[in-house]
Amino acid sequence: MIIVYFSQSGTTAQAANELHKLTQAAIYRLEPVKAYPSDFSTLADRAKSEVEQDVHPQLQDQKLDLSGETKIMLGFPTWWHQAPMIIASFFDNYDLKDKEILPFTTSGQSSIKESLPSVKKWAIASGTHVGAALTANATAAITKFVNENDL
Ligand SMILES: Cc1cc2nc3c(=O)[nH]c(=O)nc-3n(C[C@H](O)[C@H](O)[C@H](O)COP(=O)(O)O)c2cc1C
C-alpha cells in the first residue's frame, strides 16, 4: 500500500502522516507545477474555476512508481464539496488500472461522501476501483479506519 496525497495548507499532510505511522506504508505528496496561492479568496477563485472549466493542473514530475502497488490511499482537502482538480491530474498521469483507491479527505466539515462522485468519475475513466473511504478530520476516525480495513 502507498499513501499519495495533496495538501495545500498542511492539514491533509498531517492526516497522511498519521496514516503512515499507523500502517508503515510509503507516502508521497503530489505538488502542482503552478503553486496554489495562499490567500484564501484567490485560492477559492482558482479552485472554483478549475472545476468549472475542467482544468487538470499539471503535476510536478516526482518519479512516483506505482507499478508494484495494489492499494493506494489517496488524500486531499475537500474543495467546493468535491476533490480538488489536481486529483483528476493524478488519475491522468499514472497507470492505475486494476488498483484499488481508498480516498480520504480533510475538511471544515464535509464528509468524504461529498467527494466520492468526483473521485469515482475519474477512477472509472482510468479502470480503477474505489474501495473504503475516510473522513480524516480526527485521529480516532483514522485509527478506526486502519483497524477496520486491516491496513
Ligand atoms: C477553496 C477551498 C474550498 C473549500 N471547500 C470546503 C468544502 O466544500 N467543505 C468543507 O468542509 N471544507 C472546505 N474547505 C476547507 C478545507 O477542506 C480544509 O481546511 C482542509 O482541511 C484543508 O486541507 P489542507 O490543509 O491539506 O489543504 C475549503 C477550503 C478551500 C481553500
Q: Could you explain the architecture of this structure?
A:
There is one protein chain. α3 (85-93) links the parallel β3 and β4 (100-106). The protein has a single domain (2-148), classed as Rossmann fold (3-Layer(aba) Sandwich). It has helices at residues 11-23, 40-52, 85-93, 112-125, 139-148, and strands at 2-5, 26-29, 71-77, 100-106, 129-130, 134-135. It is built from 5 helices and 6 strands. Strands 1, 2, 3, 4, 5 and 6 form a 6-stranded parallel beta sheet that branches. The model has no long low-confidence stretch (mean pLDDT 97). It is α/β, with parallel strands linked by helices and 151 residues long. Flavin mononucleotide is lined by residues 7-13, 40, 43-44, 47, 77-81, 106-110.
Task: Give the arrangement of secondary structure elements.
Layout (H helix, E strand, L loop, with lengths): L1 E4 L5 H13 L2 E4 L10 H13 L18 E7 L7 H9 L6 E7 L5 H14 L3 E2 L3 E2 L3 H10 L3
Helix pairs in contact: 1-5, 3-4
Bound molecules: flavin mononucleotide.
The site of flavin mononucleotide has 21 residues, from helix 1 and helix 2.
Organism: Oenococcus kitaharae DSM 17330
InterPro entries: Flavodoxin/NO_synth, Flavoprotein-like_sf
GO molecular function, one term: FMN binding
Oligomer: single chain
Radius of gyration: 14 Å
Distance from first to last alpha carbon:
8 Å
Structural class: alpha/beta
Could you name the CATH homologous superfamily? Flavodoxin domain
Give the helix level as a range of percent.
Answer: 25-40%
Low-confidence stretches: none
* CATH class category: Alpha Beta
Total strand segments: 6
Overall morphology: globular
DSSP helix count?
A: 5
Give the topology string: H per helix, E per strand: EHEHEHEHEEH
How many structural domains in the coordinates? 1
Give the overall pLDDT as a whole number.
97
What fraction strand?
15-25%
